[in-house]
Amino acid sequence: MKLPPRQDSLKWSAYPEDVLPLWVADMDFPVAEPIRKAIQARAEGFLGYPPREGDKELRALLLERTGLQGEVAFMPGVVVGLYAAVAAFTAPGHGVLTQVPVYPPFLSAIREQGRTLLANPLKETEAGYRLDLGGLERLAYASRLLLFCHPQNPTGRVFTEEELSALAQVARKHDLVVVSDELHAPLTYERPHIPLARFLPERTITLLGPGKAYNLAGLPMGAAVGPKPLVEALKRHLPHTFPNVLAMAAWKAALLEGEGWLREVLGTLRQNRDRLAAWAQEMGLFHVPPEGTYLAWLRMPFPKAASRLLEEARVALNPGENFGKGYDRYVRLNFATYPEVLEEALRRLTQALTKT
């Protein structure tokens, strides 16, 4: 087991050494060997400005592997795309729709640019998290933009064809632009990911990136794919930067040669997911095992849960309140680590929870 060097890792350096960090969403595993070799080979070559449109082979690969169609715009990460979408398709004071709980940059992209959050909470059921299509219908009249997350962060929900089709009908009826963050698309378990754009091609911009599935967060890279008029509008609000040549080389190697590594990693993640789910059941905690991502969303028996567990268990988790109003009893736990690390974290959490 080789953990990242503390000085090189935000995840492992943000807290004192006695804290186990299961928070920020990257994996503790080294990158795939073909990706490492591709980065090294590219670093030994020409490192001048690339074409502004990026690597043509990578663009073609993305369309081929995802089944998406349309224009491709590279950008320095998916979060950049969320901010650009809010700027491109709304004006200050306008409402922006999203499901909560949700990855915090969805909320900050709305709040920091002077827009109004129209929160459509996911339905929390014993069978799992579900889209509230009735609530979406009621809010849709007040917005032109829906920011969607699929697979969903933090709940790990992978939405079904039926749900995506129904959402597409609402979006089409209310003339919504939908920006769908599908960064975790390769990280699914029992049910494969289906792009939302399959059901709403004319109104969907899909955001993609290699950072989560191939553990390349330190090489920020993303892409927006969709109809040319929408992507061109988005591009006007993207930073005026060139695509990162090392990130493009890494992403291309991931698509061409990373499948075996990803399959092996998914096996480890599935085991960790199932171990965590069994533990949550033993502890009597509400938890729906994620269908995708390597993130678990857990409801604790007390408020300000992440702060309390950091203090009492010395385990760093993401505070639920960062994912939307009313979620301070929840925590997000990143289980993309070695089984021994997860076991030690669960031991510590058990001790803290049984004291209450």
Automatic annotation (TrEMBL):
Taxonomy, superkingdom: Bacteria
Keyword Lyase attributed: yes
Gene Ontology molecular-function annotations: L-aspartate:2-oxoglutarate aminotransferase activity
Keywords tagged on the record: Aminotransferase, Lyase, Pyridoxal phosphate, Transferase
Tagged with keyword Lyase: yes
EC nos: 4.4.1.13
CDD domains, sorted: AAT_like
Top EC class of this enzyme: lyase
Domain Aminotransferase class I/classII large: 18-349
InterPro entries: Aminotransferase_I/II_large, Class-II_PLP-Dep_Aminotrans, PyrdxlP-dep_Trfase, PyrdxlP-dep_Trfase_major, PyrdxlP-dep_Trfase_small
Required cofactor(s): pyridoxal 5'-phosphate
Family statement: Belongs to the class-II pyridoxal-phosphate-dependent aminotransferase family. MalY/PatB cystathionine beta-lyase subfamily.
Name recorded for this polypeptide: cysteine-S-conjugate beta-lyase
Organism encoding this protein: Thermus aquaticus (strain ATCC BAA-2747 / Y51MC23)
